[in-house]
Target: DUF4321 domain-containing protein
Amino acid sequence: MKKKNVGTLLLFLILGWLAGAWIAKLLQPVKALSFLTTSTVLKWSPQADLDIITYDITIHLKLCMLSLAGIITAVWLYRRL
Model:
């Protein structure tokens, strides 16, 4: 059995997510497919003030049905390696 690399999995996931997002952006003008192209934004903003260091990070993740399909396809392709 081959040992699979976690970095390769992350690369596949990001590329699948990007591909799904790009396809969704291309299909936005098609009103009949709006259920696939409507995005939900997930936001995470950790912040702290520790006297000697202060940080404020904001991460926005846009997820739609086509992005999710891209992620699932990426996992399937990764498992086929």
The longest strand covers residues 40-44. The chain has a mean pLDDT of 92.
